[in-house]
Amino acid sequence: MVNAPDTAAPNTGAPDPGAAPVLDVSGLRVEVGGRRVVDCLDLVLRAGEATALVGRSGSGKSLTARALAGLLPEGAARSGSARFTSGDGAGADLLSLPPGRMRALRGPGIGYAFQEAQASLNPTVPVGAHLQETLKAHGVARDRRRARGLAALRGAGLEAPERLWRAYPFELSGGQAQRVALALACVLDPRLLIADEITSALDPLTQAGVLDTLRARTAAGGSLLLITHDLAVAARWADRVAVLDGGRIAESGPAEEVLRSPRHPFTRELVRAAEPGGRVGAHPASAGSAPGAPAAAAARTAGGAR
Amino acid sequence: MGGTTAPLAPRAATPAALLAPRARGRGGLTAGLAFLAAMVLAAALAPLLAGHDPLATDTSATGLPPGSPGHPLGTDQLGRDLLSRMLYGARYSLLVGAAAAVLTVAAGTALGAAAALAPRWLDALVTRTADALLALPMILVALTLAAVAGPSPATVVLAIAATGWMPVALIARAEVRALRERPFVRAARSLGHSRTRILLRHLVPNALPPISAVAAFEVGHAILTESTLSFLGLGIPPNIPSWGNMLTDARALLLTGQWYTVALPAGAIVAAIIAVNAVSTGLERPGAGEGRTW
Fold first, then answer.
1. Does the structure's ipTM exceed the value 0.90?
2. Mean pLDDT in chain B?
3. How close is the nearest chain A Cα to the Cα of B148, in Å?
């Protein structure tokens, strides 16, 4: 594991005054089987803002997100603090919350959309039942569940949700499954949505559609943590970027600034590797960043989704 | 939005539609189901089909061979009609077999799933108990239980469940443990579902395919054990007709020319077990390669 030197992290974690932090992560550590995978990670997520957590494969992005949502695999341990502020202003440390309260927070507080959309749907349960059961688990009245479920599917960009209501996961296409999984993560209107590499397996058009849907949520005041290894995605759809290297935040700040003029050597290398004609081979994780290069994408951010 | 209105794959969600492709090319499954259905129907309609009281003795018609007038399958040494006894016996044998299998599978699945999710000490307790019981001869445990509790259909069901839950529990435990880290279980946790809900709705239903294969074999095993215990005088009381009791009554006649008194109940037991096994084999691989577990 390569940890970035502390001195080379000029704009790490310092929150902008004024914007309300939804999640304030401080000193997060994650250990798997005695090996430290995430180390002293600081991150602030604000309302109405999309933050991209980027880094090469295996840099600890997904483990960071799973640690925050309390979804670490067996044998993994976490420490530090992650202060979550709910809509009514009440705060709680996610890392020390009792299981019952954490369970209540998952769904309406924190939504989590997974990379493997098809696999994240129970193969024996139809789409509609997934949504209804989730609403039931959080006390939504029976007569309102179907309408809310259909609205969530529509909100995720599925134009004829009634046709999918009784479909089983194996009957969905990849794009449909991703949107259903997104609808499920958003059906309780979470304050913070974690999107974990959700567009990696999608074609560029579907990817853009899904990410536009996510951005629309932040416009309505939600907070979004976008986990991706694709700098073009980060550049176009995120307000802020945090670059993860060896389990630590190497650099963070406004997306345009970080990607246009990276200060940390690792970020510079990452950006260069994704450029057309760049040293792609040096960074396998960035080699497949399909739709557009970061340099061009960074230029788009000014007039793009921001 | 791109790709959102793509037509769905052909629907196959109704139970009939799901069964149809399996039934095609699965003659064993269809034949097994049809045979079992016929057996259950015959047992249910025993009062209409029998024509005689299965307990009534007729000293003027003892030891009649199959094909005798008024007694299509003949009579036993006490002049009791064998067709009536076979039909009424099917009621007890099938009912006890099915009840024992249901109890065995339910207890095994519950214990196995609980062990998979329980603290380590409880997991160890369940698995070690299962290992220890597996090491004991099953018939010895069943005989002890039946001897202590006295012969009755309920005792037989309990004895079979007590000696048959272990393989089901070990399979259920292994399946649930494997499923725990599957993405859809993680997704259910991320949506705030309770542990009980995740167990009942996500883990157990997806662990059922291998369990159902074992369950079908448990039905056959239960029918056989019922017959064995009844044959040994520790199962269903001798005054109640069951296939096992009929074997007990007929064992002395095996070499006397009245072979049919043995062959009829023995044949019924063997046929029922083969039918159940044919069904279980037919159900083993549904949906394989179709991206679903059912």
1. no
2. 82
3. 44
